[in-house]
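Practice problem 4.
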C-alpha cells in the first residue's frame, strides 16, 4: 500500500509520564511531542510510536469497547523493531527497565530476536536478520 505515507502505532498506557520516561530511555531520545493526553516518538522516517492514557482514549471510545484500563498488564500488542545492533538494544532495554521476556534467540523464521515488556505489558521485540 504505497499510498500510506506514515504509520503511527498508539499504545494505551496507565501513566503517560511513566511510559514517556521509559520510552525516552528505550529509544534514547526525547519525545517529539509530549502534551497532556499524547506523547509521540518518531522512530524512523515512516514510523511513529504514540502513548495515550487509558482514560483519554476511553473518552473517545465511550461505551463502544471495554475500557482500555481493563487490559493493562495484558500483552495487547507487539512492537517489532529491526535494528542494526541487537546486543546494544538488548543491553539498553535492560538498562531502561524493560521486563525481559526472552533473551536473544535465533528463531526459525530467520530472525535473531529478544523480547521485553514495557510498564503496561506491551511486548517489544528487537530483531536482526540471521546471516
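Answer key:
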Amino acid at each position: 500500500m504505497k499510498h500510506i505515507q506514515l504509520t503511527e502505532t498508539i499504545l494505551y498506557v496507565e501513566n503517560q509520564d511513566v511510559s514517556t520516561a521509559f520510552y525516552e530511555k528505550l529509544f534514547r531520545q526525547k519525545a517529539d511531542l509530549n502534551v497532556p493526553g499524547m506523547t509521540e516518538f518518531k522512530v524512523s522516517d515512516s514510523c511513529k510510536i504514540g502513548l495515550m492514557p487509558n482514560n483519554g482514549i476511553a473518552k473517545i471510545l465511550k461505551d463502544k469497547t471495554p475500557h482500555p484500563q481493563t487490559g493493562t498488564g495484558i500483552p495487547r500488542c507487539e512492537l517489532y523493531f529491526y535494528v542494526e545492533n541487537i546486543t546494544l538494544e538488548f543491553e539498553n532495554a535492560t538498562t531502561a527497565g524493560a521486563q525481559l521476556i526472552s533473551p536473544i534467540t535465533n528463531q526459525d523464521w530467520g530472525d535473531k530476536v529478544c523480547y521485553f515488556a514495557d510498564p503496561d505489558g506491551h511486548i517489544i521485540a528487537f530483531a536482526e536478520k540471521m546471516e
